[in-house]
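Why should sequence recovery work at all? Because a backbone constrains its sequence more than one might expect. Tight turns favour small or flexible residues, buried strands favour hydrophobic ones, and helices have their own preferences. The token representation captures these environments compactly. In the example below, the structure is given first.
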């Protein structure tokens, strides 16, 4: 590592640490380190004559990386004059400008910085902050409305503007929140990207930034419509490099963009979403948060798998209680709720048929269900999620014919799991038997079930696997 590189990193760290925490939080400022900036730049495989711009450049890390790697046509913009002053002092022979790159149109920005043509590449880490309260956009009403409808976050505004700034056929490569791929509020912009742009690649970088809630991705998009045969490269950050996972046709996605680790992930998803009914189809009752404020209401921390820490499982009733907090390591934690009341920390499923409640309870605790939730509802998120209705209702269920065939066997195993000593060997034996019966009910062959087993073993804590084995 050269002295200039070390000197820049040290100076950038000092500058970032000088910013007040509240200022960074209120403005959605999360500085990128140089190694990640370099990996993103290398991923694009650009010709040295390419014109590169970071419209929210902060301390200029992407442009420092580009300059060190031989790029000459470099432009940095930020509305924070102090950040631009830092860049001018520490990164020479780069065109830096203090102005608002998000509030004004792309054409106005290019005119203000006197750039004759549109850049080949837009790269960076735009600010993430909801546009509520003090945070706002100094822009025209139509643009504000579009941003509001597309997620109402500053990174959304920056992403939309980036396609005005980049030339047709140019590249936009931004670090953005991972939940952009599946959260309903971003649906409008997601669909626009799928229909009007070419998504080159998505790199899952996990919870990369300290003190930032959520996980992140590197989204790289070409500023033109996709060819019908185009495939999106799905990658992840592993071993300090971007690792290929698989390629998925862009035409496969209509709204939510799911990350698939490999071909087996993709084929399993297609099977589970094309051949089965869903919990939404089957449910004839309520699925949602508990509403009781009674001191006797069940709270999430009282639940354990198939039972309670300090309560006896009811004999009858029409409710299933599910711990609202979901972690990939533990999976679903739920119990038969009978006629008890539940608090806001519990998700409640109701059905007029008590037996159906216990049948669903068995399905929820199966590995196939937890596999589906983690991969295809929570999009591989390692962070805490919620068992809200919008996720639970997507869960695939066996066909009516298969349900009738295995219904009694699943009910019997649920009863044994409720009565056996919690986490005893008998309890684990029943749980394993339940998993195998559920695989049969879904019509999963051995290769498919073995794959799910291996994935769940990798994801979940070993405390949920008898003797640490599957």
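From this structural description, the recovered sequence reads:
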């Amino acid at each position: 590592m050269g002295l200039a590189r070390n000197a820049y990193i040290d100076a950038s760290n000092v500058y970032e640490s000088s910013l007040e925490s509240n200022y960074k939080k209120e403005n959605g400022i999360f500085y990128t380190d140089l190694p990640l900036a370099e990996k993103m730049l290398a991923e694009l495989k650009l010709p040295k004559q390419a014109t590169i711009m970071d419209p929210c450049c902060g301390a200029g890390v992407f442009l420092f990386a580009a300059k060190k790697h031989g790029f000459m046509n470099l432009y940095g913009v930020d509305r924070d004059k102090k950040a631009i002053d830092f860049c001018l002092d520490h990164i020479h022979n780069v065109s830096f400008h203090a102005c608002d790159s998000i509030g004004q149109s792309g054409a106005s920005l290019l005119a203000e910085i006197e750039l004759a043509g549109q850049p080949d590449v837009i790269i960076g880490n735009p600010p993430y902050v909801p546009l509520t309260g003090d945070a706002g956009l100094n822009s025209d009403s139509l643009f504000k409305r579009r941003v509001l409808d597309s997620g109402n976050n500053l990174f959304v505004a920056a992403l939309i503007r980036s396609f005005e700034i980049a030339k047709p056929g140019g590249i936009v490569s931004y670090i953005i929140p991972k939940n952009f791929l599946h959260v309903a509020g971003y649906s409008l912009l997601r669909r626009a990207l799928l229909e009007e742009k070419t998504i080159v690649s998505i790199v899952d970088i996990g919870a990369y930034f300290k003190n930032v809630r959520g996980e992140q991705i590197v989204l790289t998009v070409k500023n033109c419509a996709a060819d019908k045969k185009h495939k999106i490269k799905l990658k992840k950050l592993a071993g300090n490099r971007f690792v290929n996972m698989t390629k998925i046709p862009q035409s496969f996605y209509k709204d939510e963009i799911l990350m698939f680790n490999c071909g087996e992930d993709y084929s399993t998803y297609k099977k589970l979403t094309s051949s089965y009914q869903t919990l939404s189809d089957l449910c004839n009752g309520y699925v949602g948060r508990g509403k009781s404020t009674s001191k006797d209401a069940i709270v999430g921390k009282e639940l354990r798998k198939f039972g309670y820490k300090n309560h006896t499982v009811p004999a009858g009733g029409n409710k299933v209680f599910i711990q609202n907090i979901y972690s990939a390591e533990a999976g679903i934690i739920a119990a038969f709720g009978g006629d008890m009341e539940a608090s806001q920390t519990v998700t409640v499923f109701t059905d007029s048929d008590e037996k159906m409640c216990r049948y669903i309870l068995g399905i929820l605790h199966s590995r196939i269900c937890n596999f589906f939730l983690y991969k295809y509802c929570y999009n591989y998120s390692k962070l805490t999620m919620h068992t809200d209705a919008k996720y639970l209702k997507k869960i695939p269920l066996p066909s009516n014919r298969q349900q009738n065939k295995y219904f009694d066997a699943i009910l019997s195993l649920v009863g044994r799991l409720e009565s056996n000593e919690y986490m005893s060997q008998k309890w684990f034996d029943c749980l394993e038997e339940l998993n195998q019966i559920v695989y049969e009910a879904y019509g999963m062959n051995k290769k498919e079930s073995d794959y799910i087993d291996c994935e769940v073993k990798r994801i979940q804590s070993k405390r949920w696997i008898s003797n640490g084995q599957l």
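A few observations help interpret the result. The domain at 3-259 is CATH 3.40.50.150 (Rossmann fold).
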